[in-house]
Amino acid sequence: MPNPAIPSLFVVIWATGFVAARFVAPYAEPLTFVAIRVTGVALVLAALAAATGASWPQGRTGWRDALVAGVLMQGVYVAGVFWSVHRGLPAGIAALVGSLQPLLTAMLARPVLGEFVSPRRWLGIGAGFVGAGLVLAPKIGAAGASGIPPVALAACLGAMAAMTLGTLWQKRTAAGANLVTNASVQFVGAAILTIPMALAFEDGRIENVPAFWLGLSWSILVNSVAGILLLLWLIRRGAVAGVASLLFLVPPVSAAMAFALFGETLSPVQFAGMAVAAAGVAIASRA
């Protein structure tokens, strides 16, 4: 894995997605917001590519590979999570479902990519999962099993699987691709998926208030543009199972942000979970 500062920055940026989603929830429908967001990100990255003279994918294969990754990682995943939470899935349970991704990634890394997942990395992944579970335990207990809508839970599980497959696809197909143009095409793929979904299932409601535009700007420029470029760089530089294990730190960091910004309390068990998750990521990243 690269310098620890870069993965740490990625975790913080990625965790802000949950904060931004909560921040804009009163002002826009979920699929409409996602459609606007991915379109804005595609335009920003295209402008950045033009300004830097970055090379675009060569031939149909390059465009296809980036579009497929974008549909999975930026379209199905983001839309699935937003939709499932909007349909009543508790955010804590949605975060816990997302934290299962490293386990699925590790299981598929060997048959799909030929990557060997060492026992030490499995230990780190297991510790990360336990730590994430400890952080989320109070929220899960408060939600109650009877309050989990099955369709929403299935959508969130599907979103997690899509992110896993997109990560593996990106690692396998985009070794030589330019990061900026590849990411731009990915978000075009996400827009191709989410715009029709928003038009078909929502009324396109947004409220023209400063809070909406602040949340949208943060989601586009920081959470998406900076976040996806860091993610793609990490995937290229590191073993995919080790990169995926970083996502175990997202629920603890998100919980800390929610405590600071929204006054959500953290129990001693949650603080212990943060430490366990951090230790698991450190073990998996160095395996």
UniProtKB/TrEMBL annotation:
The chain crosses the membrane at residues 31-54, 66-85, 91-110, 147-168, 180-199, 211-233, 240-262, 268-285. It is found in: Membrane. Residues 10-136, 154-285 form the EamA domain. It comes from the Bacteria. SUPFAM superfamilies: Multidrug resistance efflux transporter EmrE. Pfam families: EamA (PF00892). Keywords: ATP-binding, Membrane, Nucleotide-binding, Transmembrane, Transmembrane helix. One of its GO terms (molecular function) is ATP binding. It is a multi-pass membrane protein. One of its GO terms (cellular component) is membrane. Belongs to the EamA transporter family. This is Peptide ABC transporter ATP-binding protein. It comes from Methylobacterium oxalidis.
